[in-house]
Amino acid sequence: MVESLEPTNEPFNPDELYRKALADHTDYGNLPESEIKALITEIAQEIKQLEEVGEKEKARIEMPAETAKKIGAIWVNSGVGTYDTPLKEKERGVYKNLPWIQWADRQRLNHAAILARKVAEARSGENFDRGSLASIKERKAKIKEMIGRYGPKIIYNGTELEDDTVADVLSREGTIIPEDDVIIIRGSVERPIINTLDTVKTLKLPPEFRDDQELAIVAHAPHLARIMRMLNKQPPFPRTTKVRLFPVPTPEAGKKEYAELEILGILNYVLRRGVAEKESYPYVMNE
Fold first, then answer.
1. Which whole-number Å values give the CA distances from 282 to 38, 228, 231, 266, in the listed order?
2. Taking Cα atoms as reference points, which of 203, 284, 186, 197 lies closest to residue 233?
3. pTM of the model
């Protein structure tokens, strides 16, 4: 059965989510109930703030030029589907009947491309927003050249299929991101990249990334709550690294369900598996 695309508009209930968590893993009963509910509430509030920023930036990413210039690299965390498909054949079962999460990978990559252009415009002082319809192809070529000269590196490390699709998209005519501006970090036969924890462990900043720059991270708002807690457990870069988040908003129909899925997952990663911290790695957003 496919989930409805209509939003539920149900209020968030930490007691209900605690009961769901306990039904999934009875060993939560060995921990103080108040501690778990407090963590549930804290994560929910953080996701709500991330969603609000994502909604504001959905149409257009706005930030001062000086802020944009500080972005030294953009990390796109892979999502459901690929750039060319709404769902992968081997997608996790939990995502297969959720229409609102389809095309997540494409949405994140497009958001990162918009951000890369924004950074390049701030550094170059150029702007190609205006122009006749007849000159679209020429404008695209100029934007691509500008991003190649002034844009930050984009880092992507997904599954083999996701990586191959991104590489193919970059080779297509009309793509505004130059191939040389994207670093695709691939897994190996011994250590394939399968899940979010794998992407965190394999992340590497480009050699030219400076201490005074910021790492921009792009993913859907609820997923960022998980990513940042995994990063805080064992960051793959110095703890002095500054991070700025650029959340992609969840469609209205899925906001509550996606938040709940991630909260239940984070509880497991923090309290049972020990691969994430209760608190997120420090970050800022364009609020």
1. 19, 8, 10, 17
2. 197
3. 0.94
Those residues whose C-beta lies under 8 Å from the C-beta of residue 59, and which sit 6 or more positions away, are none
CB 150 within 8 A of CB 119: yes
Rg of the chain, C-alpha, whole Å? 19
Backbone angles phi, psi at 185, to 5 degrees: -95, 115
**Alpha carbons 118 and 14: distance in angstroms, whole number:** 38
113 C-beta neighbours (distance < 10 Å), count: 22
Q: Tell me the per-residue pLDDT of 142-194, one tens digit each, with 9 for 90 and over.
A: 999 999 999 999 999 999 999 999 999 999 999 999 999 999 999 999 999 99
Q: Alpha-carbon dihedral of residues 259, 265, 271, 275, nearest 10 degrees?
A: -120
Do the bridges between strand 153-156 and strand 71-76 make them parallel or antiparallel, or are there none, so unpaired? parallel
User: Is 117 exposed, middle or buried, given 0-12, 13-18 or 19+ CB atoms closer than 10 A?
Assistant: buried
Shortest CA distance to 225 belongs to which of 17, 54, 18, 15?
A: 54
Q: In the chain, count of helices (H) and strands (E)? A: 9, 5
- For residue 140, CA distances in Å to 112, 150, 154, 265 come to 16, 15, 18, 41
What are the sequence ranges of the domains in the chain?
Answer: 14-272
